[in-house]
User: Fold these one by one.
Assistant:
Number 1:
Amino acid sequence: MTFWDRLETPLIERPLFPVDAKDHDPASEHKRQSELVGKLRARGLSVTAIPNARCWGMKAWNRAKAEGAEWGAADLIVNAPGGLTAYIEMKNGRADPEQHQIDWLNSRHKMGFPVGVFRRADSAIAFLAERGFPVGVRDAA
């Protein structure tokens, strides 16, 4: 047994939240996220997207960080009446969440917020419904 095997807590934390299984659908993360946003807004929920920091460049990222941006923040903040808030990370059919995303989402999960990583709009909507979000039972696309 090595030193690393004897550690009480792992150096890399695993997700404490649901992560959709990978799929073979070629749809991009952008397309999947846009579909979910449309469906949630059609149901009267407030959805705010957090732009992907990788597209910003270092100067823009440093400015955003100074203004409060956090590395690993979820793609979407979903708000509903009654003070409900959830954090949703969308992925394409093949990508896994990166460790900084897992860390950020785990921290919100530990605070009591519903968080998850999804590949399909219907699974994200079902997740929200299970947590009391007023998403309705029919598809409002």
Number 2:
Amino acid sequence: AVYMRKTKQQNDPQEIIIDEFIGQYIAILLSYAVLGYATPNLVTDANGLIFSPYVIIGSFLLFRFFDIVKPSLVGYVDRTVKGANGTMFDDIIAGIAGGLLNSLILYIFYVWK
């Protein structure tokens, strides 16, 4: 917020990347949390998702999809909420959407194989 006030920028400055980090972190944590709740043996198994690159890669790709395309609620927040809050909230919502969609995809592939 301080940087945006000093540089008089209203939109998401490219040099600020903490919002991208937080959105990605939320997507990965949410993927593990949902999958751990839905299928605990799948996440804790030595050959299960805990060592799978699909959780991290899928979370990253889906978070970036929602962050770039900005469908639905992500786009609404990006257009209407300005300043530092808007910079953070659209990536938080993109992280939640990416994490939930990644969990659903991995759940379908791992459980219904």
